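Form 7-S
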Amino acid sequence: MTIDNIIFSVSSLVVFLWAAKVLEPVDFGRFALILLTYVFVQGSVVRSLVSWTVMVHPEDADGRPRAVLGSALILSLGAGLLCVAAGAALMLGDQGMGRAMILVGVMLPLLAVEEVGRFIAFAQARPSRAIVLDVLWLVLTVVALVAIPVFTDLDLMWMVVAWGGTGALAGLWVFAQQGIPRGHDISLSWLKERWHFSWRSLVAASSSATVALFGAGLVAVVSGPLAVAAVRAALLLERPSTTVQMAVATSAGAEIARERSDNAGLLVHQRRAMIVSVAVAALNFGVLFLIPDKVGKLILGDVWPLVTPLLLIIGLRVLAMAMQSGVRAALMGRKQISQVMKIDIAGTVLSIVGFVIGAGIGDAKGAMWGSLIGLSITVAGWWWALMSHLRSGWTYPEPAAGEPDDGAEDLSIEEIEAIAERPVS
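Output:
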């Protein structure tokens, strides 16, 4: 799982680095806003309602993967239509950004399938399937970024194609792995069954995604697109550390949910995630101050001079995030979604306030310092929530009488008979 999450993040990192290198700083800021919009829609809708929900209910991934994919398709179609409408409105003032937003809306259903396919694979304890998906996306992305300049200039629109179009193609392979959803699968029935968890996950993820989307938008209002470009490029330099943090945390959450770990087992997974994250964050911190200007300009192009004053803050941010790595995922693995929701909302408020007030005081540098203060308070909140949960004496609830635990109703009679006839390994 950790390897797959690293590959997944590398694919996004390649696109960001390429965009920073070939686009003008203002266009890079626009591209960052486009991707942030996608992350907001994908993270707050699909990942929260479907991906994390199926990961903490591995029995659904084992027995009803097509029903899960069917719910994801319905949700992403609705979200895609909203993106298309937003893009049409943007056409009145910024045609380039409007066209890119419309394209994202069209590609969103298959991008959602790719995303959910990864988490179904995690929940099934078959992460090699997720690795196949993300390697395919990465390879297609590199091919697109190399091939497109042969025929035309790699502008904002084509960068969106190179990133989103290749992800949509990779998403088609999920149907080869899990099967194509049938008519009765393409509905919100599965989501309704898990709504008690998923709606809280939606609120929590929406809060986190709001920091990135509206925080960047407010920084743009307060200080302009160049400040957005500087902040986004600065966050890009955090990616080596945050990539590993996300990877080991996701792995920890999935294992805790599937193993139904006791408190001691939970802490083993969480501490492992934190130790790895702190080690990588410390390495990331050191490397930031060793990057020569020539290498920085090679990586980020004209955006590099905007980032150099922010290197110390970047290093402190990655260390702060590493100190609570795995805590949120551990609580999610225990289905403590109410606590997660509360901390995410509080963290959202703190981060947005820090970003905006800081940007008003000192542009990009002030925004980053403000975000660090908000992040540090949020980290303390996560540890308080975990310690409170461990002291609560919580135990895993038993399934209610008559409650299906394997999703057999999603299988046809022929499929059930075929499973029964398989040799025991």
